[in-house]
Design brief:
Radius of gyration: 15 Å
Distance between the termini: 28 Å
Shape: elongated
Largest sheet: none
Number of domains: 1
Structural class: mainly alpha
Strand content: under 5%
C-alpha cells in the first residue's frame, strides 16, 4: 500500500477507535478514510499551481477539478 494511503488509514483508525463496538468502529473508519482520501485528492489538485512549468490553463483545469470533486463528494 502507498505510504500516504497507509498514513490516512492510520489517521482514520485512530479517529474511529473511540467507538467500542466493531460495527460502529468499522463504519466510522470507512467514512473517515474516504473523507481523508477525498480531501487529499482535492489538495493535490489545488497544489498544481505550485509546480514549475505549469501554465495558467493547467492551473485552472486542476482548480476546476478540485471544485468538482469537492461538490461531488459534498466536501466543503
Amino acid at each position: 500500500m502507498n505510504e500516504r494511503i497507509q498514513e490516512l488509514a492510520e489517521q482514520a483508525n485512530e479517529w474511529a477507535s473511540k467507538e467500542e463496538s466493531w460495527k460502529a468502529h468499522s463504519q466510522l473508519f470507512t467514512e473517515k478514510f474516504a473523507e481523508l482520501i477525498v480531501r487529499e485528492c482535492i489538495n493535490q489538485a489545488h497544489s498544481v499551481g505550485d509546480l514549475r512549468g505549469v501554465n495558467d490553463d493547467m492551473v485552472y483545469g486542476a482548480d476546476t477539478a478540485a471544485v468538482q470533486i469537492s461538490k461531488y463528494f459534498g466536501d466543503e
